């Protein structure tokens, strides 16, 4: 399970996978990989390149820091989180929240100039080493903006991998695929969507957001609730969260590309440190 977490979350995921791999544990050969938002990008990336190669690319491709005072929250991210909080406060449950998020995204899309779609697709495509669905089973999550219904894309969906990832990462404007328009897979349930791993013997969850959720606990959508349900049904579950020293790299800082290298290094160190314990679990 590769959870959402923005640009730094993607880098951290790659770092953890590379740290595990370099320490002798390759988890990219899992029977099922599930990617949500930034995790969908990571899931597609590891289908076309090794974690070690991807990790090296993060460290060498260092974009400049966005303009603005250092240490200030990223304004678009902060605005998005404000919208999320208002929407959640007005919603009666997760399904209602998804419908409201979809409707708001469609309203913003109606006021946009229409150029975003092609630009976003090109951006996503440039991040994928291989733009074809892998032979191993891969699920990419999204939400139908018109209905609020959860969507899960796979190789049998008739959707290009690039489009599936672009839809899963569409947290602002909706992404069009055919006649449908889709928004971020993190709105489906949470940033991890661990419930999709039901029935698997071993489940490894990598969560850049540390399992945190803005949803009310009574909605039952928190990662902890999904992990409890998986364990109650017989799955062994391990979770990996960013350590305390790297938590500042996420949240409102998650879209700062200049923080990708330190996020990747933090993940790499964690992966290496956890490899011995996780090897017994995984094998």
UniProtKB/TrEMBL annotation:
Keywords: Hydrolase, Lipid degradation, Lipid metabolism
Domain PNPLA residue range list: 1-198
InterPro entries: Acyl_Trfase/lysoPLipase (IPR016035), PNPLA_dom (IPR002641)
Active site positions, chain numbering: 37, 184
Intervals of motif DGA/G: 184-186
Segments carrying motif GXSXG: 35-39
Stated name of the protein: Patatin-like phospholipase family protein
């Amino acid at each position: 399970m590769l959870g959402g977490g923005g640009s730094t979350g993607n880098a951290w995921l790659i770092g953890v996978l590379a740290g595990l791999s370099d320490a002798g544990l390759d988890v990219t050969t899992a029977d099922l990989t599930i990617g949500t938002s930034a995790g969908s990008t990571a899931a597609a990336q590891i289908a076309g390149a090794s974690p070690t190669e991807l990790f090296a690319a993060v460290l060498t491709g260092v974009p400049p820091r966005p303009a603005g005072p250092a240490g200030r929250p990223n304004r678009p991210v902060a605005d998005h989180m404000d919208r999320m909080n208002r929407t959640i406060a007005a919603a009666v449950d997760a399904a209602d929240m998804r419908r409201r998020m979809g409707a708001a995204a469609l309203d913003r899309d109606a006021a946009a100039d229409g150029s975003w779609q092609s630009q976003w697709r090109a951006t996503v495509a440039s991040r994928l080493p291989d733009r074809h669905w892998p032979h191993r089973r891969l699920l990419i999550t999204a939400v139908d903006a018109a209905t609020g219904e959860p969507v899960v894309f796979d190789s049998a969906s008739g959707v290009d991998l690039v489009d599936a990832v672009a839809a899963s990462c569409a947290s602002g404007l909706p992404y069009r695929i055919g006649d449908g328009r889709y928004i971020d897979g993190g709105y489906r349930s949470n940033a991890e969507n661990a419930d999709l791993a039901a029935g698997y013997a071993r489940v490894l969850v990598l969560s850049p957001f540390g399992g945190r959720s803005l949803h009310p606990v009574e909605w039952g959508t928190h990662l902890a609730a999904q992990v409890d349900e998986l364990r109650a049904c017989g799955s062994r579950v391990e979770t990996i969260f960013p350590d305390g020293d790297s938590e500042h790299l996420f949240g409102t800082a998650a879209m700062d590309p200049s923080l990708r290298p330190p996020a990747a290094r933090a993940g790499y160190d964690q992966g290496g440190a956890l490899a011995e314990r996780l090897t017994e679990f995984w094998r």
